[in-house]
């Protein structure tokens, strides 16, 4: 029963957040500062999530095969590789390091 209460509260919370977004005046959203922040916040959140997933294991700082895969993806991005090549490089390097015992 607790799970269904949590699901209902989460659904209601999501609905309220969407409703609040609709109530924001259009003039407030067209300000230059708001536009810049709206463009940068998703990038910052994605970077934070990537770092947390790549360097954290059970609440401790960990450098393992995931870090090597992330480095391979970063190198592929610097070389302007297509997205699928970036993901493939990360997967192959991570799998290779794990197969070698890292």
UniProtKB/TrEMBL annotation:
Superkingdom assignment: Bacteria
Keywords: Membrane, Transmembrane, Transmembrane helix
InterPro entries: Brnchd-chn_aa_trnsp_AzlD (IPR008407)
Membrane-spanning ranges: 6-25, 37-55, 67-97
Protein name per Swiss-Prot or TrEMBL: AzlD domain-containing protein
Taxonomy of the source species: Bacteria, Bacillati, Actinomycetota, Actinomycetes, Kitasatosporales
């Amino acid at each position: 029963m607790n799970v269904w209460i949590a699901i209902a509260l989460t659904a209601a919370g999501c609905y309220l957040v969407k409703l609040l977004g609709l109530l924001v005046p259009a003039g407030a959203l067209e300000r230059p500062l708001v536009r810049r922040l709206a463009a940068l916040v998703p990038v910052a959140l994605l970077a934070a999530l990537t770092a947390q997933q790549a360097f954290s294991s059970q609440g401790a700082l960990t450098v393992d095969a995931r870090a090597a895969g992330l480095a391979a993806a970063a190198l592929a991005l610097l070389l302007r590789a297509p997205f699928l090549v970036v993901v493939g490089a990360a997967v192959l390097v991570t799998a290779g390091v794990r197969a070698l015992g890292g």
